[in-house]
Design goal:
There is one protein chain. This protein is mostly helical. The protein has one domain (3-117). Helix content is 88%, strand content 0%. The chain contains 4 helices and no strands. The radius of gyration is 22 Å and the shape is rod-shaped.
Amino acid sequence: MKDDQIVAVLGPLAAKLGVAAEHLWAVLLRQAPITGAMSLVFYAFLIACCFGLFRWIKFVRDKVDNDRWDEISYLGPILGAIPLVIGIVIAIDYLPLTVAAFFNPEYWALHEIIGHAK
């Protein structure tokens, strides 16, 4: 999109906020790397949770006698893995936007505008 097309799309939103569309676009471009960095922190947290879950499973398996490693012993790790899997699916879905936030902030900003305009 050209700048005049972007300004035309941002015009109604900027009018509601009481700012110029050019200012709103500049703010979105400055926000892109900040959001990308926040996403990287979230990804690091997910990786740490994965390692923690695997260590928890290993700890439980080492503590529980092999004869007693039954269905109930799996309950804790399974309940811990459910939110982790949901977080991983969300992270995989959002990964292209994280990359775009750093390397193509105009695309990220446009995606934010279109996503919130729906």
